[in-house]
Amino acid sequence: MKVELINHTQFALETLIYTKNTRLQGQMSLDDIISWPFEKKEDEFKYMLDTIQSSLEFVDYTFKISGVTRAFTHQLVRTRTGSYAQEAQRVVDVRDQEVLNTTGDTLFDELSNYILNEYGKMIDSGVSVQDARGILPTNMTTNIICKFNLRTLHDMSLLRLCKRAQGEYQKVFKQIVDSVVAVHPWAERYLKVYCVWYGSCAFPRYTECPMQTNCFKPDREDLQAKFDQIEHEAAPVLVQNGRTM
Fold first, then answer.
1. CA-based end-to-end distance of the chain
2. Residue 116 — φ and ψ, nearest 5°?
3. CA neighbor of 142 nearest in space, from 84, 73, 212
4. What share of the chain is helix, strand, coil (3-state, %, to 5)?
5. Using CA of residue 227, residue 191, residue 21, residue 6, what is the dihedral sign?
6. What is the torsion angle, in degrees rounded to the nearest 10, for the CA atoms of residue 164, residue 169, residue 174 and residue 178?
7. Could you tell me if 91 and 183 are in contact, meaning their C-beta atoms sit under 8 angstroms apart?
8. I need a labelling partner for 3 at 20 to 30 A (CA). Which of 41, 178, 191, 230 fits?
9. In what side-by-side order are the strands of the sheet with 83-86?
């Protein structure tokens, strides 16, 4: 498998800060923020991590992911806030493509080879590619191009870096994070697994995870009861440097 970052938002960090500032004052231009020293930009980003995250939707990343299974891409495209373009089995004859054996069982290879051979025979006999594809294995390798904004990547990181996620998804997403961090090192602190970000487990019933001993395990019913007893409404105020408290 291979993940390539093929495009990303220019002046990404500056755009995040600018859009956040626009909500509150709108007095600075994007050029003003571009001229800031990096330390000032990074400090502003740290502040933004604990605020409403809508500004993070203005930064996009486009990836080419190749050599992965359709089993994986079936899961990937369930992220509704992504954009996708995938190799089409409806028109492409894929008899020469690899079927990824994730079992280690030789029977898997034997059955895969048999299916691809019969698939080829069907097409050669006149069956349309779009109909013949119905017998193809789920672990056929494929290529897909996808685009996510930074907020979506954060949400995906929470669960797709998790030890409970499918192994192929974990590996692909680690490469996605690495490719983002390579161009935007400041984004690394935002692309974290759920237990690291929140300090609790996203799947507390999955007790096989060795990370659970390091996680806070709240009593949700107790927290709900306490939440229902408390009346509070925030009254945000602008304090300084375009920040709210």
1. 45
2. -65, -35
3. 73
4. 50, 15, 35
5. negative
6. -160
7. no
8. 41
9. 2-8, 60-69, 141-149, 83-86
User: What is the token pair recorded at 243?
Assistant: 């920040």
SS3 for 193-211, per residue? CHHHHHCECCCCCCCCCHH
Query: From the centroid of its chain, how far is CA 17?
Result: 22
Contact 25, 242 (CB under 8 A): yes
Which regions of 35-140 does DSSP assign to beta strands (E)? 60-69, 83-86
> Tokens in use for 112?
């895969």
Q: Which domains, and CATH codes, for the chain?
A: 2-89+140-194 (3.30.1360.170)
Reported pTM: 0.89
Token code pair at residue 26:
């709108």
pLDDT of res. 172: 98
Angle between helices 12-24 and 38-48 (to 10 degrees): 60
Residue 19, amino acid:
T
Residue 216's pLDDT is 86
The dihedral sign for the CA sequence 8, 10, 13, 19: negative
Residue-level pLDDT at 239 = 65
* E strand intervals along 106-198: 141-149
Q: Which residues of the chain have pLDDT under 50?
A: none
- State residue 84 phi and psi, 5-degree precision: -140, 145
Catalytic machinery residues? 160
- Token reading at 49: 């991590």
Q: 10's torsion region: left (phi>0), alpha (psi -120 to 50) or beta?
A: beta
Cα-Cα-Cα-Cα torsion 36, 38, 42, 48, nearest 10 degrees, comes to: 30
Please give the biggest Cα pair distance in the chain. 74
